[in-house]
Task: inverse folding
Protein backbone atom coordinates (compact mmCIF):
# COMPACT_ATOMS: atom_id res chain seq x y z
CA UNK A 1 0.00 0.00 0.00
CA UNK A 2 1.13 3.55 -0.71
CA UNK A 3 1.53 5.55 2.48
CA UNK A 4 0.21 9.10 2.08
CA UNK A 5 1.13 11.34 5.00
CA UNK A 6 -0.78 14.53 5.79
CA UNK A 7 1.01 17.06 8.00
CA UNK A 8 -1.31 19.43 9.85
CA UNK A 9 -0.30 22.22 12.20
CA UNK A 10 -3.38 24.35 12.90
CA UNK A 11 -7.13 24.21 13.28
CA UNK A 12 -7.64 26.32 10.15
CA UNK A 13 -5.66 24.18 7.72
CA UNK A 14 -7.01 20.91 9.19
CA UNK A 15 -10.52 22.20 8.65
CA UNK A 16 -9.70 22.74 4.99
CA UNK A 17 -8.16 19.29 4.55
CA UNK A 18 -10.50 17.12 6.60
CA UNK A 19 -12.71 16.01 3.68
CA UNK A 20 -9.66 15.24 1.56
CA UNK A 21 -8.23 13.19 4.42
CA UNK A 22 -11.44 11.14 4.64
CA UNK A 23 -11.30 10.47 0.90
CA UNK A 24 -7.64 9.39 1.10
CA UNK A 25 -8.46 7.13 4.04
CA UNK A 26 -11.27 5.49 2.04
CA UNK A 27 -8.94 4.37 -0.76
CA UNK A 28 -8.17 0.68 -0.24
CA UNK A 29 -4.76 0.88 -1.93
CA UNK A 30 -3.59 3.76 0.28
CA UNK A 31 -2.68 4.06 3.93
CA UNK A 32 -3.39 7.48 5.43
CA UNK A 33 -0.78 8.73 7.89
CA UNK A 34 -1.31 11.87 9.99
CA UNK A 35 1.29 14.01 11.71
CA UNK A 36 -0.14 16.67 14.05
CA UNK A 37 2.13 19.49 15.14
CA UNK A 38 2.38 23.13 16.27
CA UNK A 39 -0.83 24.68 17.69
CA UNK A 40 -2.75 21.38 17.53
CA UNK A 41 -0.77 20.29 20.60
CA UNK A 42 -1.02 23.55 22.56
CA UNK A 43 -3.50 24.06 25.42
CA UNK A 44 -3.24 27.78 24.74
CA UNK A 45 -4.66 27.25 21.25
CA UNK A 46 -7.34 24.76 22.25
CA UNK A 47 -5.59 21.36 21.90
CA UNK A 48 -7.21 21.03 18.50
CA UNK A 49 -5.65 17.63 17.81
CA UNK A 50 -8.71 16.39 19.70
CA UNK A 51 -10.88 17.58 16.82
CA UNK A 52 -8.88 15.37 14.45
CA UNK A 53 -9.45 12.37 16.69
CA UNK A 54 -13.13 13.24 17.18
CA UNK A 55 -13.51 13.08 13.39
CA UNK A 56 -12.46 9.42 13.53
CA UNK A 57 -8.81 9.74 12.49
CA UNK A 58 -5.79 8.17 14.16
CA UNK A 59 -2.83 10.52 14.62
CA UNK A 60 0.33 8.57 13.84
CA UNK A 61 2.80 11.08 15.28
CA UNK A 62 2.54 14.23 17.40
CA UNK A 63 5.47 16.60 16.88
CA UNK A 64 5.93 19.23 19.59
CA UNK A 65 7.49 22.41 18.23
CA UNK A 66 5.69 25.50 19.54
CA UNK A 67 7.61 27.70 21.96
CA UNK A 68 5.62 30.05 24.19
CA UNK A 69 7.05 33.13 22.53
CA UNK A 70 5.75 35.90 20.32
CA UNK A 71 9.15 36.95 19.02
CA UNK A 72 10.91 36.32 15.71
CA UNK A 73 13.50 34.39 17.70
CA UNK A 74 10.81 32.11 19.13
CA UNK A 75 9.20 31.52 15.74
CA UNK A 76 12.56 30.70 14.14
CA UNK A 77 13.40 28.26 16.94
CA UNK A 78 9.95 26.65 16.70
CA UNK A 79 10.57 26.08 12.99
CA UNK A 80 13.88 24.40 13.79
CA UNK A 81 12.28 22.20 16.45
CA UNK A 82 9.59 21.27 13.96
CA UNK A 83 12.14 20.16 11.40
CA UNK A 84 13.89 17.98 13.98
CA UNK A 85 10.64 16.35 15.12
CA UNK A 86 9.33 15.87 11.59
CA UNK A 87 12.60 14.24 10.55
CA UNK A 88 12.10 11.67 13.33
CA UNK A 89 8.49 11.15 12.23
CA UNK A 90 9.46 10.61 8.59
CA UNK A 91 12.21 8.21 9.66
CA UNK A 92 9.66 6.14 11.55
CA UNK A 93 6.67 6.32 9.19
CA UNK A 94 8.53 6.09 5.84
CA UNK A 95 5.75 7.78 3.82
CA UNK A 96 5.57 7.59 0.03
CA UNK A 97 4.05 11.07 -0.34
CA UNK A 98 3.68 14.10 1.92
CA UNK A 99 0.56 16.28 1.56
CA UNK A 100 0.87 19.89 2.74
CA UNK A 101 -1.47 22.87 2.55
CA UNK A 102 -0.57 26.51 2.60
CA UNK A 103 2.21 28.71 3.77
CA UNK A 104 2.91 28.61 7.49
CA UNK A 105 6.29 28.06 9.10
CA UNK A 106 5.45 24.54 10.28
CA UNK A 107 4.76 23.64 6.64
CA UNK A 108 8.16 25.07 5.72
CA UNK A 109 9.72 22.71 8.27
CA UNK A 110 7.69 19.79 6.88
CA UNK A 111 8.70 20.49 3.27
CA UNK A 112 12.37 21.05 4.16
CA UNK A 113 12.61 17.74 5.99
CA UNK A 114 10.83 15.94 3.14
CA UNK A 115 13.28 17.42 0.64
CA UNK A 116 16.24 15.97 2.51
CA UNK A 117 14.48 12.63 2.91
CA UNK A 118 13.68 12.53 -0.84
CA UNK A 119 9.97 12.19 -0.15
CA UNK A 120 7.80 13.79 -2.86
CA UNK A 121 5.42 16.53 -1.72
CA UNK A 122 1.91 17.40 -2.95
CA UNK A 123 1.31 21.06 -2.16
CA UNK A 124 -2.19 22.54 -1.93
CA UNK A 125 -2.92 26.27 -2.31
CA UNK A 126 0.35 27.35 -3.86
CA UNK A 127 0.72 30.27 -6.24
CA UNK A 128 -1.21 32.80 -4.12
CA UNK A 129 0.23 36.18 -3.24
CA UNK A 130 -0.17 37.71 0.25
CA UNK A 131 2.16 40.67 0.39
CA UNK A 132 1.56 41.56 4.04
CA UNK A 133 3.05 38.43 5.62
CA UNK A 134 6.22 36.38 5.41
CA UNK A 135 3.89 33.48 4.59
CA UNK A 136 4.19 34.72 0.99
CA UNK A 137 7.88 33.78 0.77
CA UNK A 138 7.25 30.52 2.64
CA UNK A 139 4.51 29.54 0.18
CA UNK A 140 6.74 30.02 -2.86
CA UNK A 141 9.60 28.20 -1.12
CA UNK A 142 7.36 25.20 -0.49
CA UNK A 143 6.37 25.27 -4.17
CA UNK A 144 10.03 24.80 -5.15
CA UNK A 145 10.32 21.83 -2.77
CA UNK A 146 7.11 20.21 -4.04
CA UNK A 147 6.36 17.85 -6.91
CA UNK A 148 2.59 18.02 -7.42
CA UNK A 149 0.74 21.31 -7.15
CA UNK A 150 -2.95 21.99 -6.52
CA UNK A 151 -3.60 25.76 -6.79
CA UNK A 152 -7.09 27.19 -6.47
CA UNK A 153 -7.32 29.42 -9.57
CA UNK A 154 -5.83 29.57 -13.07
CA UNK A 155 -3.96 32.77 -12.14
CA UNK A 156 -2.23 30.90 -9.32
CA UNK A 157 -1.53 27.93 -11.59
CA UNK A 158 0.26 30.22 -14.04
CA UNK A 159 2.29 31.75 -11.24
CA UNK A 160 3.54 28.31 -10.15
CA UNK A 161 4.60 27.60 -13.74
CA UNK A 162 6.32 31.00 -13.73
CA UNK A 163 8.31 29.73 -10.73
CA UNK A 164 9.69 26.98 -12.97
CA UNK A 165 7.32 24.09 -12.28
CA UNK A 166 6.32 21.85 -15.18
CA UNK A 167 2.70 22.53 -16.28
CA UNK A 168 2.01 18.78 -16.32
CA UNK A 169 2.37 18.76 -12.50
CA UNK A 170 0.21 21.83 -11.79
CA UNK A 171 -3.57 21.34 -11.49
CA UNK A 172 -6.15 24.10 -11.00
CA UNK A 173 -8.69 22.40 -8.75
CA UNK A 174 -10.31 25.23 -6.76
CA UNK A 175 -10.19 25.78 -3.00
CA UNK A 176 -10.73 22.97 -0.51
CA UNK A 177 -12.49 25.29 1.93
CA UNK A 178 -15.21 26.09 -0.58
CA UNK A 179 -15.53 22.40 -1.42
CA UNK A 180 -16.13 21.67 2.28
CA UNK A 181 -19.04 24.11 2.34
CA UNK A 182 -20.82 22.06 -0.32
CA UNK A 183 -20.32 18.72 1.47
CA UNK A 184 -20.39 19.44 5.23
CA UNK A 185 -23.80 19.29 6.97
CA UNK A 186 -23.82 22.59 8.89
CA UNK A 187 -25.43 23.25 12.27
CA UNK A 188 -28.85 24.85 12.55
CA UNK A 189 -29.14 28.15 14.41
CA UNK A 190 -30.37 26.77 17.73
CA UNK A 191 -27.81 23.96 17.69
CA UNK A 192 -25.06 26.45 16.88
CA UNK A 193 -26.11 28.85 19.65
CA UNK A 194 -25.97 25.96 22.13
CA UNK A 195 -22.52 24.96 20.87
CA UNK A 196 -21.30 28.56 21.21
CA UNK A 197 -23.14 29.31 24.46
CA UNK A 198 -23.96 32.60 22.71
CA UNK A 199 -27.18 33.98 21.24
CA UNK A 200 -27.24 35.21 17.65
CA UNK A 201 -30.39 37.26 18.19
CA UNK A 202 -29.20 40.50 16.53
CA UNK A 203 -26.72 41.56 13.81
CA UNK A 204 -23.40 39.82 14.50
CA UNK A 205 -19.87 40.22 13.18
CA UNK A 206 -17.35 37.37 13.09
CA UNK A 207 -13.89 38.86 13.69
CA UNK A 208 -10.49 37.24 13.11
CA UNK A 209 -7.35 39.38 13.15
CA UNK A 210 -3.84 37.99 12.59
CA UNK A 211 -0.54 39.86 12.84
CA UNK A 212 0.79 41.30 9.59
CA UNK A 213 4.21 39.71 9.96
CA UNK A 214 5.92 42.07 7.48
CA UNK A 215 4.29 45.21 8.87
CA UNK A 216 6.48 47.72 10.74
CA UNK A 217 3.63 48.89 12.99
CA UNK A 218 2.96 46.67 16.05
CA UNK A 219 0.06 44.26 15.64
CA UNK A 220 -1.38 45.46 18.95
CA UNK A 221 -1.69 49.02 17.63
CA UNK A 222 -3.45 47.72 14.53
CA UNK A 223 -5.89 45.68 16.61
CA UNK A 224 -6.65 48.70 18.80
CA UNK A 225 -7.75 50.54 15.65
CA UNK A 226 -10.13 47.67 14.90
CA UNK A 227 -11.50 47.55 18.46
CA UNK A 228 -12.14 51.30 18.48
CA UNK A 229 -14.03 50.89 15.19
CA UNK A 230 -16.16 48.14 16.73
CA UNK A 231 -17.12 50.53 19.53
CA UNK A 232 -19.12 52.46 16.92
CA UNK A 233 -21.57 49.52 16.69
CA UNK A 234 -22.83 49.05 20.27
CA UNK A 235 -25.96 47.18 19.12
CA UNK A 236 -23.94 44.63 17.16
CA UNK A 237 -22.70 41.38 18.66
CA UNK A 238 -19.11 40.27 18.07
CA UNK A 239 -17.69 36.76 17.82
CA UNK A 240 -13.87 36.76 18.01
CA UNK A 241 -11.67 33.85 17.00
CA UNK A 242 -8.07 33.86 18.20
CA UNK A 243 -5.16 34.37 15.78
CA UNK A 244 -2.62 31.75 14.77
CA UNK A 245 0.72 31.29 16.53
CA UNK A 246 2.42 34.12 14.67
CA UNK A 247 4.74 36.78 16.02
CA UNK A 248 2.75 39.01 18.43
CA UNK A 249 -0.20 36.61 18.32
CA UNK A 250 -0.41 36.28 22.10
CA UNK A 251 -0.51 40.03 22.52
CA UNK A 252 -3.52 40.12 20.21
CA UNK A 253 -5.21 37.40 22.25
CA UNK A 254 -4.65 39.43 25.43
CA UNK A 255 -6.29 42.52 23.93
CA UNK A 256 -9.25 40.49 22.65
CA UNK A 257 -9.71 38.95 26.11
CA UNK A 258 -9.75 42.42 27.69
CA UNK A 259 -12.28 43.69 25.15
CA UNK A 260 -14.63 40.74 25.65
CA UNK A 261 -14.39 41.15 29.43
CA UNK A 262 -15.42 44.79 29.06
CA UNK A 263 -18.37 43.89 26.80
CA UNK A 264 -19.62 40.50 28.07
CA UNK A 265 -23.22 40.93 26.90
CA UNK A 266 -22.39 41.37 23.23
CA UNK A 267 -18.97 39.73 22.75
CA UNK A 268 -17.46 36.26 22.99
CA UNK A 269 -14.05 34.87 22.05
CA UNK A 270 -12.96 31.34 21.10
CA UNK A 271 -9.43 29.91 20.80
CA UNK A 272 -10.81 27.72 18.01
CA UNK A 273 -14.30 27.34 16.58
CA UNK A 274 -13.29 24.31 14.54
CA UNK A 275 -14.34 24.03 10.91
CA UNK A 276 -17.93 22.91 11.61
CA UNK A 277 -18.82 25.72 14.02
CA UNK A 278 -16.91 28.29 11.99
CA UNK A 279 -18.66 27.48 8.71
CA UNK A 280 -21.99 27.19 10.52
CA UNK A 281 -21.50 30.71 11.93
CA UNK A 282 -21.17 32.07 8.40
CA UNK A 283 -24.83 31.18 7.80
CA UNK A 284 -26.01 33.57 10.51
CA UNK A 285 -23.54 36.46 10.88
CA UNK A 286 -23.96 39.72 9.00
CA UNK A 287 -20.34 40.02 7.89
CA UNK A 288 -16.81 38.81 8.54
CA UNK A 289 -14.21 41.35 9.67
CA UNK A 290 -10.42 41.06 9.93
CA UNK A 291 -7.59 39.81 7.75
CA UNK A 292 -8.02 36.04 7.62
CA UNK A 293 -7.68 34.20 4.32
CA UNK A 294 -11.10 32.66 5.00
CA UNK A 295 -12.72 36.06 4.49
CA UNK A 296 -11.38 36.02 0.94
CA UNK A 297 -11.65 32.33 0.07
CA UNK A 298 -14.70 30.83 1.80
CA UNK A 299 -16.93 33.65 3.02
CA UNK A 300 -18.08 34.87 -0.44
CA UNK A 301 -19.77 31.51 -1.00
CA UNK A 302 -22.16 32.33 1.87
CA UNK A 303 -23.36 35.51 0.19
CA UNK A 304 -22.21 37.83 3.00
CA UNK A 305 -19.65 40.66 2.93
CA UNK A 306 -16.07 40.56 4.15
CA UNK A 307 -14.26 43.59 5.56
CA UNK A 308 -10.62 42.83 4.72
CA UNK A 309 -8.27 45.01 6.78
CA UNK A 310 -4.74 46.01 5.84
CA UNK A 311 -2.17 44.26 3.67
CA UNK A 312 -2.12 40.69 4.98
CA UNK A 313 -4.20 39.40 2.05
CA UNK A 314 -2.92 41.95 -0.46
CA UNK A 315 -2.45 40.35 -3.89
CA UNK A 316 -5.13 37.67 -3.60
CA UNK A 317 -7.99 37.45 -6.06
CA UNK A 318 -11.13 38.75 -4.36
CA UNK A 319 -14.85 38.48 -4.98
CA UNK A 320 -16.96 41.64 -5.28
CA UNK A 321 -18.25 41.05 -1.75
CA UNK A 322 -14.81 41.72 -0.22
CA UNK A 323 -14.32 45.29 1.02
CA UNK A 324 -10.66 46.26 1.35
CA UNK A 325 -9.76 48.98 3.83
CA UNK A 326 -6.76 50.48 5.58
CA UNK A 327 -6.01 49.55 9.17
CA UNK A 328 -7.35 52.71 10.78
CA UNK A 329 -10.35 53.27 13.01
CA UNK A 330 -12.16 55.53 10.54
CA UNK A 331 -11.49 53.32 7.52
CA UNK A 332 -12.62 50.16 9.33
CA UNK A 333 -15.76 51.83 10.66
CA UNK A 334 -16.64 53.08 7.18
CA UNK A 335 -16.04 49.61 5.68
CA UNK A 336 -18.29 47.95 8.28
CA UNK A 337 -21.05 50.49 7.55
CA UNK A 338 -20.67 49.61 3.86
CA UNK A 339 -20.95 45.91 4.76
CA UNK A 340 -24.22 46.63 6.58
CA UNK A 341 -25.67 48.56 3.62
CA UNK A 342 -28.50 47.23 1.45
CA UNK A 343 -26.38 47.76 -1.67
CA UNK A 344 -23.56 45.55 -0.37
CA UNK A 345 -26.07 42.95 0.80
CA UNK A 346 -27.32 42.70 -2.78
CA UNK A 347 -23.76 42.55 -4.13
CA UNK A 348 -22.73 39.82 -1.70
CA UNK A 349 -25.82 37.75 -2.42
CA UNK A 350 -25.05 37.67 -6.14
CA UNK A 351 -21.23 37.54 -6.07
CA UNK A 352 -19.21 34.83 -7.80
CA UNK A 353 -16.49 33.19 -5.72
CA UNK A 354 -13.35 32.89 -7.92
CA UNK A 355 -12.14 29.98 -5.78
CA UNK A 356 -15.14 27.73 -6.24
CA UNK A 357 -14.93 24.66 -8.46
CA UNK A 358 -16.87 21.39 -8.23
CA UNK A 359 -15.60 18.57 -5.99
CA UNK A 360 -12.07 19.86 -5.34
CA UNK A 361 -11.09 17.16 -2.84
CA UNK A 362 -12.26 14.32 -5.11
CA UNK A 363 -10.34 15.78 -8.05
CA UNK A 364 -7.14 15.86 -5.98
CA UNK A 365 -7.61 12.21 -5.08
CA UNK A 366 -8.20 11.24 -8.71
CA UNK A 367 -5.04 13.06 -9.82
CA UNK A 368 -3.00 11.35 -7.10
CA UNK A 369 -4.38 7.97 -8.23
CA UNK A 370 -3.00 8.62 -11.70
CA UNK A 371 0.56 8.60 -10.32
CA UNK A 372 1.80 5.03 -10.60
CA UNK A 373 5.00 5.75 -8.66
CA UNK A 374 5.36 8.86 -6.53
CA UNK A 375 9.14 8.45 -6.44
CA UNK A 376 9.35 9.18 -10.15
CA UNK A 377 8.31 12.73 -9.32
CA UNK A 378 11.45 13.49 -7.34
CA UNK A 379 13.85 14.46 -10.19
CA UNK A 380 12.74 17.90 -11.42
CA UNK A 381 13.97 20.20 -14.15
CA UNK A 382 13.36 23.94 -14.07
CA UNK A 383 10.63 24.73 -16.58
CA UNK A 384 11.74 27.82 -18.51
CA UNK A 385 8.93 30.05 -19.72
CA UNK A 386 10.49 30.24 -23.19
CA UNK A 387 9.13 26.70 -23.67
CA UNK A 388 5.55 28.03 -23.56
Result:
Amino acid sequence: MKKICVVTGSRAEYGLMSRLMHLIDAETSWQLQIIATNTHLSPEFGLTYREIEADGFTIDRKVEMLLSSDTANGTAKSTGLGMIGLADAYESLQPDLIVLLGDRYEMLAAASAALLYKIPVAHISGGDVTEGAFDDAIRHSITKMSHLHFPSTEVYRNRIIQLGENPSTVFNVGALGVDNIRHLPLLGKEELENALAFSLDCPTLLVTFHPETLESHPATEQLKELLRALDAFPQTKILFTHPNSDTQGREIISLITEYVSAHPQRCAAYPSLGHLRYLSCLQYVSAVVGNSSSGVLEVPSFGIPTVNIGNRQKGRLKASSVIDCECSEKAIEAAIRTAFSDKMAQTAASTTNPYEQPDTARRIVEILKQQDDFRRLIPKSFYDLKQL
Summary: The chain has a mean pLDDT of 94. DSSP finds 15 helices and twelve strands in the chain. Residues 72-93 form the longest helix (22 residues). The CA atoms of residues 22 and 142 lie 24 Å apart.
